[in-house]
Amino acid sequence: MAGGWSRVARRIRVPLGFAFVVVFMWLARPRVGSLALSLLLVVPGLWLRGYAAGYVKKNAEVTVTGPYAYTRNPLYLGSMLIAFGFALAARSLWIAMALAVLFAVIYIPVIRSEEEFLRSKFADYEAYAARVPRLLPRFRPAAAADDEAGGEFSSALYRKHREYNALIGAAAIYAALVLKIFLWR
To answer: How far apart are CA 2 and CA 113, in angstroms?
Structure first.
């Protein structure tokens, strides 16, 4: 059953995110101060997602450098920072609680499923997983094994993965929250 749910979770996570934005905007009670405070989570989250996208070569190799030397899932960690930053902007405990439940129900099975795939495809994944935590990052980068290739940030990979869409989406949400502050008082 877990395998079945992880397949469903992978398919619904993006559409569910768009549906959640509607609920988010309805429940949000932003203020200028909460928007400013939210930047403390949203900006690092956007940076982390963009930085990670410039390293990852999906389904081609186990990425072990850049942010992947600190956490195996920097893209998901970045998404969580962004999401909880927007919960802070919205000043809604309901939104924060709903996000926590959604991340647990959707992303835990997705991460486990992706790890199963990586273990089956790449012999070196197990050693990497033993050195690098799943989500909460290390304070220092894990040392790469001798046979693991190094890597540098690639703006071409960033563009290929279209990570700029996260920045565009965040800007659109901030614009909607600003409109909500000033037009729907």
So the answer is: 9
Residue 28: which of 129, 98, 78 has the closest Cα? 98
* Count of other CB atoms within 10 angstroms of residue 79: 20
Report pLDDT digits (tens) over 74-95: 999 999 999 999 999 999 999 9
146 pLDDT band (50/70/90 cuts)? low
Task: Write the CATH number for 66.
Answer: 1.20.120
Supply the DSSP symbol for 73: -
Contacts by 116-119, CB closer than 8 A, 24 or more apart: 118/62
Q: Which helix (H) or strand (E) holds 166?
A: helix 164-183
Helix (H), strand (E), coil (C) string for 132-143 = CCCCCCCCCCCC
Q: What is the mean pLDDT of residues 29-46?
A: 97
Residue 26: domain span: 2-183
CA distance 106 to 115: 15
Residue 84 belongs to what H/E stretch? helix 74-90
pLDDT in tens, 113-124: 999 999 999 999
- % of the chain surpassing 70 pLDDT: 95
Total domains in the chain come to: 1
Task: Please tell me the distance from the alpha carbon of residue 48 to that of residue 102, in angstroms, as a whole number.
Answer: 21
